Amino acid sequence: MSHPLIVANWKMHKTVHQSIAFAKELLRRLDSMPEDLPDQVICPTLPALFSVASRLRGTPLRVGAQTLDLGREGANTGAVSAYLVREAGADFVILGHSERRSLYGEDDALVAEKTRAAWDCGLMPIVCVGESPDERKRGATDDVIRRQVSAIVETEGDDWRDPMIIFAYEPLWAIGTGEVASPEEADRVAALIRDWVGHLRPEVAQTIRILYGGSVKAENAAGFAASPHIDGALVGGASLDVDQWLALIQAWREVEAS
Ligand code: PEP
To answer: To pair with 83 at 20 to 30 A between CA atoms, which of 71, 147, 164, 226?
Structure first.
């Protein structure tokens, strides 16, 4: 199992000042904590990305963007390319989040194109996959996951050799709802993702990391941390408060260390 990775998705929360204050406080508190903590990635809003990345430079903490637009530079009003977020200090980018899919109409093909754009700029894509409540009710979870994963894994054709990729299993009914998948169910789907990637590209199945996301917090982290196919978490609500974030990081570490 790879070293655990916990990713904070701040969505459209925190001003630039609040983001910097969080980063400073986090660094201060981490000073007195053990070193063998999970890897941490903070994904602030775009206006705060550069400031947070600058503040965290030279520390083990990394920064990610929450999306990107296609292209490099040009007449694309309002767009922010992979190149620009990389240059601003991001090492990671969340792609295909269900809120991007539902609010901005991003489909599998666009998520695949964005994944390629991320790779081209040396960004590590964190690609979200997950079924809706209705798909779950219909027993279509596995088909949805296979379809979403195939769209990404097939995107590079035969050149898909050593991809840098993280998948996040985020069942839509568990995001921001307080309803959480059981560790058994999340682990089953994580195993399905790994198996399916292995089926499509046997050479890379063991190198990908798989996160679970959906109402993860300190109180329920242990079950996911102990799940053999889950390598970390993508966290929304519980990442907005330093105390809650560190409690979650600690809870994950305790399971890993035991
Ligand atoms: C998310 O936004 O990806 C997420 C998992 O949010 P929450 O932890 O609030 O459910």
So the answer is: 147
